[in-house]
Amino acid sequence: LKGEYDHFLLKEIFEQPAAVSRAMGEGGRLLHDFGTAKLGGLNLDKRDFFDIERIHVLAMGTGYYAGCVGGAMIEHLARIPVQVFDASEYRVSNPIVKRDTLYLAISQSGETADTILAVKEVQNKGGRVLGIVNVVGSTLARLTEGGVYTHAGPEKSVASTKAFTSQVTVMALLALLLGRMRDVPVRRGKELVDAMMALPDRIHETLGLRDRIKEIAEKYKGYGSMLFMGRGNYYPIALEGALKLKEISYIHAEGFSSGGLKHGPLALISPDMPSLFIAMDGDFLDKDIGNIQEVRAREGKVIVLTDSDDPRLEDLASDIIKIPATDEVLAPILAVVPLQLFAYYVSLALGREIDQPRNLAKSVTVE
Ligand code: F6R
Known about the structure:
- It is built from 13 helices and 12 strands.
- It is globular, with a radius of gyration of 20 Å.
- α8 packs parallel to α13.
- The protein is an alpha/beta fold.
- The site of fructose -6-phosphate has 15 residues, from α3 and α10.
- Keywords: Aminotransferase, Cytoplasm, Glutamine amidotransferase, Repeat, Transferase.
- Its EC number is 2.6.1.16.
């Protein structure tokens, strides 16, 4: 039931503090004193983790972007190389399956044919696959050797929101666990545990920006196309923001790496082509500001999404969305929330179907 909400999508966006909390087992998947995570369903002897040389993630769509964000978290904390694959491509690539590779399949429904077939290809070659799945007892949950349920609760809207943030949260738990088995010291582990425990409150605060985002969405609803830009672990967030917008508003949207701007997309910039830049505090903020200047110099409107107080951003932005700060490892989970709200309010202003976009099905059970 939608209850007080007009659409399931909005309800599910607002359920994210609770969903992310459930993905952390309401805290039960975190061991504060040891600064690590505990994942019961992996069905792996911890000793097997020492032998993992690389991780391959298999998923489609929004799950693929969750894999990109979470994979970078694993690389950052555990220094294990992670590659993320479009499962439909992986399956046709005659993949090299190896004993020291851990395979992770990410799926909300657990019924996505492309992902299931990629998993079967790996399993037929002797690979061990774990699932990060939302629907309990689904095909993928049964097919995989073990895994972690995201426990986001039922997701009814075709466009995925709370499943995404829950998938990334589970990947963060895995990154913490693997990181603490390797180089991450207990003190940094505890810091991350604290930041994870506080994440539902930070998401709640971010949701408080809804009215501001609605105003911005109404200003941008009339454009035929829009670009989304991000750097580092905000690049897959930019791609996810673009996917959300095209999926429910039918406005053409594309995501690019901020660094890639000069390598082609800059040619698209004009007063008719707005962009949304994710420009978060950190080592590369100056680079982001440089990119935004290039777009503004060509009269492109820019919505800036940031957690920084840098006054240059206020000056440059056509519109600015300021989100709360959190640990930099977890910040992408917060950054996606305004993009979900933006897509929702643009679509609302355009009178779209929102929960049931044309041509799309909630789970894609055919190839
Ligand atoms: C986008 C969306 C899709 C799914 C994709 C995989 O909002 O929902 O891109 O993420 O079809 O679905 P699952 O996660 O069920 O395997």
